[in-house]
């Protein structure tokens, strides 16, 4: 029992070390990941390399894949680039496993000393996070040494060996075991390293170790999909494509595990075998994925399109029998308002991908979402009108009006996206023209700010927090300044005679001004809260009822 507790403790230490590395790198260099993603957009090798580097640095392909999916959802990179980046991330984790599986355990005390004392002594936040990552690496190496020592003891336990003997001829057991452990630990890297330690100490045979690697790889493909299941089509498509190519290659590898286990030992030591096998598998997955990327992405898109609509076109939370209890009916209205806001937010997020990639399928989805927003808005208006017929306190009346103002803003945002930005995208597609590289980057920067402010606006509406309202209000001027700089730069490019800028001149200006309008509507969410607190005068704000 004591050996099992020691093993669990060692695994926990390994997972914590991985977490520290990931946290340290993200806090130190997380802001640089977006620029890295942008620079690799549309280029296979840079996209693949960026995924490899990010996963190796974060010690997690899952984290790198989720970041790529998020960027695709925001329109920062295309779905195709996100998919290639994910393939690179899987290889990056394999490289991390290969390096970590080497006998570097003697470095653990040194890395821990540097990391801990550096963290304590540093006053700069960035350097503290760098030292945090170094400490994490030390913990990983230390944990691997503990696992190896503990695993050696397990191999001598009759009960443990008897249990393994039961499943010796059941490869599915080891695949499922690795899959479950990967899900529970949220780290395929940890499970592969565990198999390396078990194999090196004789706890399991070579074949069983390779089956664990297959299960961990399957888990690494499933984790991002499970974690991101409620994401947009743009986010889900590359994640599902990554899982599809992974499943196909694992099925192809499965029948030959025993042959590879016997043949491979002639060339590779037993200690390195799982790591080399893991790397080989992911390299083949990457090659197949890159070659067949268009077909795999098309299949993923088709599979997702066949799923039921995740957003209902009709209200989901309006309870018609609660009008006698205004507090409950107002809560229902507020919940429906948030539902509506999330749909209009999805339209804003997707609009950039439509404009950049000329994505006609996504354009149709955005236009369809506008009908959904209108239907829900009409229902909320009628519901609020019915609530106002009851005997309400002044506070309840104001809450009802605030909900109506909020949903009005969300409906106006939907109109801007549908009636203006989607019209612009249609003209752009028909004329076969593209924004200049500089102009597109400016649009992306403005879009990022708007998307960030959208989350802030919804949180402000939900919480009625005065501090959040103040921040949201101040963000309006920030985007105004950004819009002015973008227009000036665009006019300068026109003056230089840059072809793309000339062809898209009016479109470029209209797009950034439309995003400015969206941001102004988001900022209006803060007004009722700031008026109630006395920070701004009611005369300075016109209600939109």
Provide a descriptive summary of the structure in words.
There is one protein chain. The chain is mostly helical and 545 residues long. 80% of the residues lie in helices and 0% in strands. Helix 19 packs antiparallel against helix 21 (505-523). The N and C termini lie far apart (69 Å).
Would you list the SSEs in sequence order as H and E?
HHHHHHHHHHHHHHHHHHHHHH
Shape: globular
Structural domains: how many: 2
Beta strands, count: 0
Helix tally? Answer: 22
Low-confidence stretches: 541-545
Could you give the distance between the termini? Answer: 69 Å
Rg for CA atoms: 27 Å
Biggest pleated sheet: none
How are the SSEs placed, and which strands pair?
Blueprint: H1 2-39, H2 44-58, H3 61-73, H4 79-100, H5 108-121, H6 125-154, H7 158-166, H8 171-185, H9 188-200, H10 206-227, H11 233-253, H12 257-264, H13 273-291, H14 293-305, H15 326-357, H16 360-387, H17 394-431, H18 437-463, H19 466-495, H20 499-503, H21 505-523, H22 527-532
Helix pairs in contact: 1-2, 1-6, 2-3, 2-4, 3-4, 3-10, 3-11, 4-9, 4-11, 4-13, 5-6, 6-9, 8-9, 8-10, 9-10, 9-13, 10-11, 10-12, 10-13, 11-13, 11-14, 15-16, 15-17, 15-18, 16-17, 17-21, 18-19, 18-21, 19-21
Key words describing this protein structure:
80% helix, globular, disordered C terminus, Methane Monooxygenase Hydroxylase, Chain G, domain 1, 545 residues, 2 domains, mainly alpha, 22 helices
Brief account:
This protein is mainly alpha-helical and 545 residues long.
């Amino acid at each position: 029992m004591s050996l099992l507790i020691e093993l669990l403790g060692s695994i926990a230490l390994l997972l914590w070390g991985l977490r520290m590395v990931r946290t340290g790198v993200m806090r130190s260099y997380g802001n640089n990941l977006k620029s890295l993603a942008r620079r690799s957009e549309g280029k296979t090798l840079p996209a693949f390399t960026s995924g490899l580097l990010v996963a190796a640095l974060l010690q997690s392909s899952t984290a790198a894949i989720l970041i790529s999916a998020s960027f695709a959802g925001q329109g920062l990179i295309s779905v195709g680039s996100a998919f290639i980046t994910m393939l690179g991330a899987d290889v990056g984790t394999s490289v991390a496993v290969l390096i970590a599986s080497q006998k570097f355990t003697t470095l653990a005390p040194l890395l821990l000393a540097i990391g801990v004392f550096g963290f304590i002594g540093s006053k700069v936040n960035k350097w503290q996070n760098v030292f945090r990552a170094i400490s994490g690496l030390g913990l990983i190496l230390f944990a691997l040494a503990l696992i190896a020592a503990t695993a050696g003891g397990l191999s001598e336990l009759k009960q443990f060996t008897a249990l393994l003997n039961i499943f010796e001829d059941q490869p599915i057991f080891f695949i499922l075991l690795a899959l479950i452990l990967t899900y529970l630990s949220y780290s395929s890297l940890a499970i592969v390293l565990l198999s390396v330690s078990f194999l090196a100490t004789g706890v399991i045979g070579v074949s069983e170790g390779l089956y664990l690697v297959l299960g961990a790889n399957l888990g690494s493909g499933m984790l991002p999909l499970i974690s991101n299941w409620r994401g947009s089509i743009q986010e889900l498509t590359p994640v599902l494509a990554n899982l599809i190519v992974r499943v196909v290659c694992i099925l192809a590898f499965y029948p030959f595990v025993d042959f590879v286990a016997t043949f491979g030992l002639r060339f590779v030591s037993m200690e390195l075998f799982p790591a080399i096998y893991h790397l080989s598998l992911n390299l083949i997955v990457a090659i197949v994925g890159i070659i067949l990327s268009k077909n795999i992405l098309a299949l993923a898109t088709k599979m997702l399109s066949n799923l039921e609509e995740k957003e209902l076109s009709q209200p989901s939370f309006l309870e018609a029998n609660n009008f006698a209890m205004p507090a409950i009916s107002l809560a229902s209205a507020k919940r429906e308002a948030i539902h509506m806001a999330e749909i209009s937010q999805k339209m804003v997020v997707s609009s950039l991908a439509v404009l950049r990639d000329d994505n006609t399928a996504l354009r149709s989805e955005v236009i369809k979402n506008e009908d959904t927003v209108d239907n829900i808005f009409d229902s909320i208006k009628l519901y609020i009108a019915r609530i106002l017929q009851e005997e309400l306190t002044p506070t309840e009346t104001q809450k009802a009006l605030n909900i109506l103002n909020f949903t009005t803003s969300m409906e106006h945002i939907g109109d801007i996206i549908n009636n203006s930005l989607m019209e612009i995208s249609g003209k752009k597609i028909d004329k076969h023209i593209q924004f200049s590289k500089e102009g597109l980057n400016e649009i992306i920067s403005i879009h990022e700010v708007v998307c960030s402010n959208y989350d802030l606006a919804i949180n402000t509406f939900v919480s009625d927090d005065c501090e959040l309202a103040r921040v949201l209000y101040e963000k309006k001027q920030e985007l105004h300044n950004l819009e002015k700089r973008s227009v000036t730069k665009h006019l300068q490019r026109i003056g230089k005679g840059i072809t793309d800028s000339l062809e898209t001149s009016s479109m470029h200006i209209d797009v950034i001004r439309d995003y400015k309008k969206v941001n102004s509507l988001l900022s209006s969410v803060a007004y009722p809260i700031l008026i109630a607190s006395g920070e701004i005068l009611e005369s300075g704000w016109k209600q939109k009822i």
